[in-house]
Amino acid sequence: MRHSNIRWLAFVPILVFCTLVSAGGIDLAASIDALLADPALKYGIQGVVVESLSTGEVLYERNRNIAFVPASNFKLIVSAAALDCFGPDHRFYTSIYITAEVDSSGTLDGDVVIVGGGNPVLSTTDLKSIVEDIKNLGIKRITGNIVADSSLFDDLPLGQGWSWDYEPYYYAAQISALNLDRNVVKVQVRPGVKPGDPAYVSLNPSSGFMTVKTTAVTGATGSENTLYIDRERGKNKIRVSGSIPMDYNGVFVEPITMENPALYTATMFRELLSQSGIKVDGTATCGLKPDNAQLIVKHQSPPLSDILPLLNKPSDNLIAEVLFKSLGARFKGRGAAANAEKVELDFLSKIGADTKAIAINDGSGLSRLNYVTPGNLIVLLRFMWNHEHSKVYIKSLPVAGVDGTLRSRMKGTAAEGNVRAKTGYVSRASCLSGYVTTSDGVPLVFSIMMNGHMCPNSEAKRVQDSICALLAGLKLSSDKQ
């Protein structure tokens, strides 16, 4: 296992270093210390760094060089590395090849190969567009198979250190060079006609690729919703149990992952071809594109500048992982985590980060084997503030009280509509890092990392939000600024 020398740091004594800043009558260090002394954070460890982006002055720091589990704050790294290495206009391609010529009757006596190029946002709508392109080429029948080629990436579908019980759920969707609809299907449940009736269960999109076993029933009006939906481990068998109230408003929807998203993509592609009137004799399968195959359609993703908000605002793990492996594929020859790790470490070394204090095991932060210091996140965020594509990067981050994972946070405070930051949470680890502007227009960079707290995450977020509101309300222009 890589980084086996990394140790859990929850028991390292807390070291506090604070710059005493009196801002508009506020002792900033004392104020942040008081917030971090919240009893809810007892037993945990916190790392906080705040710096001025105008002068470089350190306004506050605590445990700057202690390595923390970052959770989704790790997405700040993959986003920055992808933007720096690929550029904002970079696109990812899904290519369609045929293995034989099309005869005068429109028959292709061979296979159609769909090659994944690491597009993390390919959708069913995109596949339908590809099918139309194929129809326009005059193809009416395919005697062979629909072959999915996802060989740009390795065959490890999950990140190192991911928990096994995450696997059925959207935030742990399997990683592939050929993805479709974020590699989930939506399980839809609604009540039956009367209490005691079986609940109605359907899949969207519907496909023979996934099967459903349901024991779910309709509960009495006003009863509790006890639906439980998961997937049998290692299989494409969805299980639905529990009850849904008779008066449930709307349709209950749960996204569930699948095994082998590349094969799922080929299966859906075959079904869409058939629905369009193109007869397909063969089946959906996985394989490699023959060297002599002919390219007939090339579908491009949106530019990276449009993909990054889809990653950072909702904190989409699949997009992060696909970008991560795409870095490895492009710059180290294969889309493997070890290669992607090298690319990110090269980037971080270039910008002046202390790479000895960083452990990289995935791109999303879902793994608990990732570590980074608050100081290193400050180095990263400061570099990206001054980057030639800084606007793209900053625009991709959630805005407090407005959108993404911060849409419900900091409302009614000076931080609302001001803070742009990346959230992050896995059990006992909660982080928030990004940018805030003081009340007199001074831009600040901050990183708040919390590990080992025994309280609910809502309590940790409450303290983070209070710190951000404090920073947003500062007046620094009359001081050293």
Strand and helix map with partners:
Blueprint: E1 16-17, E2 22-23, E3 26-27, H1 28-36, E4 45-52, E5 58-62, H2 75-86, E6 93-98, E7 107-108, E8 112-115, H3 124-136, E9 141-142, E10 146-149, E11 184-190, E12 200-204, E13 211-214, E14 217-219, E15 228-231, E16 237-241, E17 243-245, E18 252-257, H4 261-275, E19 279-280, E20 284-286, E21 294-300, H5 304-312, H6 317-332, H7 337-350, H8 374-385, H9 390-395, E22 420-426, E23 429-437, E24 443-451, H10 457-472
Parallel strand pairs: 7-9, 8-10, 9-19, 10-20, 13-16, 14-17
Antiparallel strand pairs: 1-5, 2-3, 4-5, 4-24, 6-8, 6-21, 11-12, 11-18, 15-16, 22-23, 23-24
Helix pairs in contact: 1-10, 2-5, 2-6, 2-7, 3-4, 6-7
Radius of gyration: 25 Å
Number of strands: 24
How much of the residues is beta strand, in percent? 15-25%
- Give the low-pLDDT segments: 1-22
What is the CATH class of the largest domain? Alpha Beta
Helix content: 25-40%
Q: Can you summarize the main beta sheet?
A: 6 strands, antiparallel
